[in-house]
Backbone:
């Protein structure tokens, strides 16, 4: 049996850029590889991947494999599964990491079952056990009400990693690494599940995952009209508006605004939480915020256990004067 | 059309965070007994997806659940909203498993059921939040799959799925038989009606033991695990919230902006 060695990350190119989570995977993969005294490699698929491969090296990889084929331009379950399986069997890494993204959520479980190797999803901490050399995988469970430390009994040890849970390294363009082209040898007839079209729900302004300031509204806002006030505030602060799940489920905001376990993960400097209770599943998406400010009429609401500043009261009374004063302060 | 929906009975995931307690020795999590278990939210949505297909195309829905200590009122909800049959894999030896042992047992049960066009699962169980079992069943049965569905339609033998993805959705086609995992965007499970409750009363769930599905004892429950759980704990929170006061809420809001400015956050 061949020995498993090194760390392999499966990267993603989104809108002609290496995904933020891929840079985070490279950062954490680098740390793990160094602890093992082994190498960090990565896989990029699509077309025109070379510039991204160089960038991935600058962010920590020793070796980037590229697989180019027009059919790999977008994520296609069956084709990606075949390509990644082939890569993993060839590299025989100790550890395989992917992002907890729409791709990772689909691909990692299938890859795990196909290779009879356990995968732990949505990890927020990864470390090497110094005694056994095994990968310690920490993931929130019960909607974030608890955390669990796992190890896998199979090889390779596979995990998906939550966005913004890990930090990328500083870019170092003088880092040296190899770029190796692999023929994907795609068999289009293997494609049973077929992506036909991607429909974008355009959101005006800054994307919530990129905003330094977020104003997030919950069910207590009561309807879509209230969100106009949140938009005003976000506009003043050059931030964006986020939402909890009930808000999205009620159609007051598009799905792309949902923050939480089953929505997006954000880590702004300032998170203004208005009329939301601070459920564990919501906090799963924003607990990385540097400062949380809460406005809620219920002093017992869980959000006050998460926030550093808060006011207890009706948002309808609080927000107009808050917005007015912010406008005044920003003029000074 | 033959539809199978996999359901899991779980602790109520929306119970208040401080009502959870952890037994550190056993690595288990508990809720007080007065908080009743529920069907995992996304599994309910999966059931709704199947019911909508049945509404338009007809067919049969088999609800399938693995566990131990089922609460009859909870799990029989599947029948009350319109599932035609309920199969329970109920045995102590199914306990203590992970996604690998669970997907194996469910896949063996589905083989025994034999006929299926679409198998529905929730996008993830709302307790362990992994989202592995659906993909596992598909892989073990050699079926194509689509995850994170928010809309499911079928024409001829092709299923069209809208799949939640980032800033929008994808339109994906897949032939039957296939497995689809469903996300909350599809919409909530319909309400239980009295007629449905009466109907459910007349249907006895079928209980299958490991031998009934020909399961390899080394692949189910805790013996079939591929992962080890070392520690389960509550994350510690250190934040102290500073409540900003004022004559009234409006003034408190003004004071809050001043405090934020002082803290250099505005
Ligand atoms: C598996 C799973 C995954 C989930 N994923 C997510 C997710 O990704 N994101 C997410 O957000 N949720 C998610 N949820 C749902 C989550 O459990 C909560 O139900 C949800 O976050 C609650 O949203 P909320 O805070 O807006 O509503 P509520 O909990 O109803 O809170 C509303 C708050 O508004 C306050 N309020 C009401 N009126 C006013 C007023 N006039 N002025 C001031 N305050 C007022 C109330 O005091 C209350 O605290 C998930 C649930 C499960 C089970």
Residues:
């Amino acid at each position: 049996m061949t020995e498993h060695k090194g760390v392999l990350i499966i990267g993603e190119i989104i809108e002609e850029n290496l995904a933020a989570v891929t840079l985070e995977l490279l950062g954490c993969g680098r740390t793990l590889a160094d602890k093992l005294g082994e190498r960090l490699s990565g896989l990029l698929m699509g077309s025109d991947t070379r510039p991204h491969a160089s960038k991935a090296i600058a962010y920590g990889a020793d070796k980037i494999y590229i697989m180019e084929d027009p059919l790999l331009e977008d994520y296609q379950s069956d084709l990606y599964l075949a390509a990644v399986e082939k890569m993993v069997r060839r590299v025989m890494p100790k550890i395989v990491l992917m992002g907890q993204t729409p791709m990772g959520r689909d691909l990692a479980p299938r890859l795990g079952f196909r290779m009879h190797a356990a995968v732990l999803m949505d990890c927020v901490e990864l470390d090497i056990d110094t005694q056994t050399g095994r990968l310690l995988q920490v993931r929130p469970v019960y909607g974030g009400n608890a955390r669990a430390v796992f190890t896998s009994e199979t090889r390779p040890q596979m995990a998906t990693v939550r966005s913004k849970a890990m930090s990328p390294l500083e870019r170092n363009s003088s880092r040296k690494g190899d770029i190796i082209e692999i023929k994907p040898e795609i068999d289009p007839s293997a494609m049973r599940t077929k992506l036909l079209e991607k429909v974008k729900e355009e959101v005006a302004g800054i994307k919530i995952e990129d905003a330094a300031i977020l104003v997030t509204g919950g069910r207590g806002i009561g309807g879509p009209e209230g969100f106009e006030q949140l938009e005003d505030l976000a506009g003043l602060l050059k931030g964006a508006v986020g939402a909890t799940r009930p808000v999205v489920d009620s159609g007051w905001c598009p799905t792309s605004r949902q923050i939480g376990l089953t929505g997006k993960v954000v880590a702004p400097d300032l998170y203004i939480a208005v009329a939301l209770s601070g459920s564990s599943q919501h906090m799963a998406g924003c607990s990385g915020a540097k400062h949380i400010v809460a406005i809620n009429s219920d002093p017992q609401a869980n959000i006050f256990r998460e926030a550093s500043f808060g006011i207890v009261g009706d948002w309808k009374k609080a927000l107009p004067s808050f917005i007015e004063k912010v406008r005044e302060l920003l003029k000074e | 059309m033959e539809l199978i929906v996999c359901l899991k009975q779980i602790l109520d995931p929306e119970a208040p965070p401080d009502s959870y307690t952890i037994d550190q020795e056993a690595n288990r999590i508990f809720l007080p007994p007065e908080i009743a278990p529920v069907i995992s939210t996304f599994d309910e949505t999966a059931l709704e997806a199947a019911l909508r297909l049945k509404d338009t195309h007809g067919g049969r829905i088999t609800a399938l659940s693995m566990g131990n200590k089922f609460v009859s009122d909870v799990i029989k909800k599947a029948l009350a909203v319109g599932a035609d049959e309920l199969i329970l894999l109920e045995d102590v030896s199914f306990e203590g498993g992970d996604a690998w042992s669970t997907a194996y047992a469910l896949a063996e049960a589905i083989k025994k059921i034999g006929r299926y066009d679409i198998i529905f699962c929730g996008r993830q169980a709302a307790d362990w939040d992994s989202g592995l079992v659906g993909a596992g069943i598909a892989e073990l049965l050699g079926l194509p799959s689509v995850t994170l569905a928010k809309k499911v339609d079928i024409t001829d033998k092709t299923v069209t799925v809208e799949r939640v993805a980032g800033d929008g959705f994808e339109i994906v086609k897949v032939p039957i038989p296939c497995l689809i995992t469903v996300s909350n965007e599809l919409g909530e499970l319909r309400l239980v009606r009295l007629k449905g409750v009466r109907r459910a009363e007349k249907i006895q769930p079928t209980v299958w033991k490991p031998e009934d599905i020909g399961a390899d004892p080394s692949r189910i429950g805790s013996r079939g695990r591929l992962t080890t759980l070392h520690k389960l704990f509550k994350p510690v929170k250190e934040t102290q919230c500073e409540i900003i006061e004022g004559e009234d809420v409006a003034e408190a809001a003004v004071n809050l902006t001043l405090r934020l400015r002082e803290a250099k956050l505005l």
